[in-house]
Structures are given as C-alpha cells and as structure tokens.
Recover the amino acids of this structure.
C-alpha cells in the first residue's frame, strides 16, 4: 500500500512540474513574439489627434494625417489617416507630439511595428519612439 502512495505522489509531482514547465515556455514564447519588431520606418504628416484612453491600461493613441491625393478618374480626394501608439514611458515623444499639435506643424514619426498588440502597450502595432518637427 505504501508503495502505491509513493508512486501516486511521484506521478502527481511529475504532472505538476510538466504543466508548470509547459506554461512557462508558452508564456515566455508569447512575450518574445509580442515584443519582436517586425519592421521599422517613418511617416510624415500632421497629427490630428492624440489621446490617453483605456479601461484598465491607459495608453496614448494618436492619428496622423499623411496627406491626400487626387484620383483623376473618380474626382474624389481621399485622406489617409494612420493610427499609432506612444509607449507610456516615452514622455519626450509625447511632449514633442503635443508641441507639434500646438504649433500646427508637420512631423516625422519614427516607429517600430510589432507583430501583435498587448493591452498595456497600446491599441496599435505601431510604437512611436522618436519625433522630428518639420
């Protein structure tokens, strides 16, 4: 009887460690995947909106008007709005964006595109890390 109890304890402990190990590997893999930078680039335009929003995690979200073009066939003038997020620990970028809005100046935004979004990082995959006022 005692031998069966020892084997049952060993099996339970083995299952527990296996599940715990798999959980750690899955969570670590998801965090690496979510923080992987897929691409980097710049966008030029005029900031039309910057706001702090969110239910649980407050993030800074913005919109950049990258310009308009005229389609001669239809005669319509569509504007292109590009949405982005500013990491909350990057206050210098947020200050520069607010300064450009106050002055009504065009900006050049430097961004890193992530593979996926995380609720505490922002609503978009585009994270702004630098701003040049043009």
């Amino acid at each position: 009887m005692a031998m069966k109890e020892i084997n049952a304890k060993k099996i339970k402990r083995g299952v527990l460690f296996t599940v715990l190990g798999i959980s750690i590997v899955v969570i670590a893999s998801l965090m690496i995947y979510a923080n992987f930078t897929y691409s980097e680039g710049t966008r030029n335009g005029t900031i039309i909106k910057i706001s702090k929003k969110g239910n649980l995690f407050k993030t800074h979200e913005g919109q950049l008007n990258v310009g308009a073009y005229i389609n001669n066939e239809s005669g319509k003038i569509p504007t292109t709005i590009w949405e982005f997020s500013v990491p909350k620990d990057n206050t210098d970028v947020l200050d520069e964006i607010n300064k450009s809005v106050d002055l009504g100046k065009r900006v050049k935004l430097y961004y890193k595109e992530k593979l996926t979004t995380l609720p505490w990082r922002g609503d978009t995959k585009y994270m702004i890390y630098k701003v040049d006022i043009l």
